[in-house]
Design goal:
The chain has 118 residues and is α/β, with parallel strands linked by helices. The chain has 5 helices and 4 strands; from the N terminus they run E-E-H-E-H-H-H-E-H. Helix content is 42%, strand content 14%. The model has no long low-confidence stretch (mean pLDDT 94).
Amino acid sequence: MLKIKRVYEEPSEDDGRRILVDRLWPRGLSKDKARIDLWMRDISPSDELRKWFGHDSSRWEEFRRRYWKELEENEGSVAQLEIMEGKGNLTLVFGRRDELHNNAIVLKEYLDSRRSHR
């Protein structure tokens, strides 16, 4: 099972492996409290895309399109996540306050899409 969760939410047993999918470490959070199993900076949006988006919801659809394209070009990291997902619960963890407009949502959509086309 693949799900997403804010890093500031309390970890739970059903999270399985917790993968931080942000380029930057979340502010004010210790590594012990975050309980991250793996930090995959390279699966997150490029610095250029992240800065362009600036968490401006009016740019959301274009951000999704551009990030999807970056994911298509990042086969190694995507495959690594798919392998981990095949071994049990996997939670994509993100730091943004905005739970509707963040890269973890796009990444989950991308992975779900790949799974449905296999």
